[in-house]
Task: structure prediction
Amino acid sequence: MKRMLCFAVVLSAVSFLLTLCSTQETLRPGDLVFVGIPADYSLDSDSMESAISAATGSGALNLIHVAIVDVDEQGVWIIDATIKHGVDRHPLSTFLEDFTLKDGSYPVFMVKRLRDDAGAEGFVEAAKAYLGQQYDSAFLPDNGASYCTELVYNSYRRPDGSPIFSAAPMNFRDAEGNMPVYWEQLFALLGMPVPQGIDGTNPQAMAAEQVLRDVDVDLVSLAR
Result:
């Protein structure tokens, strides 16, 4: 009797694990990974991530970056635009290493997918055309460089050439309406005014677009 009871418990546990695993979706080419940090997490005051967080954050989670997923027989790759790499394609493990927080933990990784992703592989190929570009520290359109959401905006286009995602006047000010010192210093070095109000994109707004849906994927476990 005890043996039958133990077998039933083990069978139940296995069934639960299989059910849990079945709820996990797999990554597809064209999925987007958004990087979020808690609103109260302290970043270095002179970092771009801190300035982006102050300008675009809302609620309990500030989204500071977005990356494009590419999947092939060799594994999972990330295409994104960062200060460190420019526009680059690298393994998922490199992406996770780059975004490890100061205490060694990971930020929040939110994976989203187009509700209609029939053309997703084409969008990935379009993004590859930008590989090698520099990071767009000026946040200006059509200047031969790309920032993270600009890369997605330009790559994800309908057959008629219209963008899938929306652009809106950019805001560099914090929640109190003040301009972070980082932005003032950066654009002074570039010899230009802060491009406040020029049409652009940001991760917080892009993640909220209705063309996207959430995907339940554990990125960290995929890189192990």
